[in-house]
Amino acid sequence: MISSIYFTGFKFVRGVILYGPPGTGKTTIIRELCEYFKYKPKVINGPQLLNSLIGKSEEAVRLLFEKAKKDQKNKGDSSPLHVIVFEEIDALFSKRTSSEGGSDTRNGIVNQLLTMMDGYDALNNILIFGTTNRLDMIDPALLRGGRFELQVKIDLPNVQERLEIFNYHLNEPRKNGFLASNISTDNFQQLASVTNNYSGADIAELVRLAISYAIDRSFEDTTTSLDKLNLEHANICIQWNDLITAFYQCEQARRKRENELKTNKNNANDDRTDHN
């Protein structure tokens, strides 16, 4: 079947970018796909790799594809698929420029990747994933056909999806008897309704906080007169109030971050005004 498709001249997708807000599970989706199809991805963190590339950018990118090149040379069409994942791909493959510091490094990285994806010696046994919060920052040359031509938006969950995420993260405590019996599906629905614009990671953090409150309360209840914890008699139970308290703490943290972003943006605008 694969051979028949090959002789039609059809070219398989070599690059896929998952983009969307932070915390929406872009890398997790890729990992799950790889696990389902029994592939072991090579995951590269963009900012970390960039910091180690000064003066040897092209060599570092070439090394990422070295195994794939050897397999294609030795095994041809029977070569196994090599999956490479670039997290925060915009840090590595941002728009090429001659005016920014470190531009030579980024330009070299982009050029080398283009060579691997659709140059004269392009590899046919690779699938490259990228994740980003800023699709607009990526070099447009990488988004053309034969490169990262498939771009999939992973958006924030809607209310029904948030309900499913809450159920997922609280399923284990409920199954093991750590969730108060009076917490109902309606309570979960309430949480899903008030957590608008929360990502999956935000909801996971909310649940983690609620569990930590329950654990802290249990430790307080089991402290002996010698201030030692009697863990054998700990009675951990996540109450509705724990989830509500965690929600309000998350809201405070979100408002603080929003205010900081507004302040930074205003300061940046003031600086540009002063220079002008």
From TrEMBL:
Any idea which UniProt keywords this protein has? ATP-binding, Cytoplasm, ER-Golgi transport, Hydrolase, Magnesium, Metal-binding, Nucleotide-binding, Protein transport, Transport
- Which Gene Ontology MF annotations are present? ATP binding; ATP hydrolysis activity; metal ion binding
Q: Name one Pfam family in it.
A: AAA
Location relative to the cell: Cytoplasm
Q: Which GO terms describe its biological process?
A: Golgi to plasma membrane protein transport; intra-Golgi vesicle-mediated transport; SNARE complex disassembly
What's the chief localization of this chain? cytoplasm
Q: Which cofactor does it need?
A: Mg(2+)
Q: List, alphabetically, the Gene3D superfamilies matched.
A: 1.10.8.60, P-loop containing nucleotide triphosphate hydrolases (3.40.50.300)
Q: Where is the AAA+ ATPase domain?
A: 12-158
Q: Where is this region: Disordered?
A: 257-276
Key word Nuclease present in the record?
no
The enzyme's first-digit EC class, named in words, is: hydrolase
Q: Which GO terms describe its cellular component?
A: Golgi stack
Q: What is its EC number?
A: 3.6.4.6
PANTHER family, A to Z: VESICLE-FUSING ATPASE, VESICULAR-FUSION PROTEIN NSF
Family indicated by similarity: Belongs to the AAA ATPase family.
Instruction: State its role.
Output: Required for vesicle-mediated transport. Catalyzes the fusion of transport vesicles within the Golgi cisternae. Is also required for transport from the endoplasmic reticulum to the Golgi stack. Seems to function as a fusion protein required for the delivery of cargo proteins to all compartments of the Golgi stack independent of vesicle origin.
- What name does UniProt use for this protein? Vesicle-fusing ATPase
Classification lineage: Eukaryota, Metazoa, Spiralia, Gnathifera, Rotifera
